[in-house]
Amino acid sequence: KVTxxxxxxxxxxxxxxxxxxxxxxxxxxxxxxxxxxxPVDGNTDIYSLGVVLYEMLTGRVPFEGxxxxxxxxxxxxxxxxPPTRYN
Length: 87
Prior knowledge:
Keywords: ATP-binding, Kinase, Nucleotide-binding, Serine/threonine-protein kinase, Transferase. The protein has 87 residues and is mainly alpha-helical. It has helices at residues 17-20, 32-36, 42-58, 68-77, and strands at residues 9-10, 23-24. The protein has a single domain, classed as Transferase(Phosphotransferase), domain 1 (Orthogonal Bundle). Strands 1-2 form a two-stranded antiparallel sheet. The two termini are 24 Å apart.
């Protein structure tokens, strides 16, 4: 059951994730726009759906980190490994 779309975002929308130190929801499904504190639209949900699909295909989320902030920053700064690397 998917229930996290649209709630994984920085708590204070005027700051970026790098400055809030708090994330509401799961950072694993954040879009780069959400992680950067930029305006979001329907593409944000498509990105999150892509993360779910990636997890279904590989058995893992695209980015791991020690903290939610570290995971969010990886969505902005790093490229994801192709799913074929795992299957």
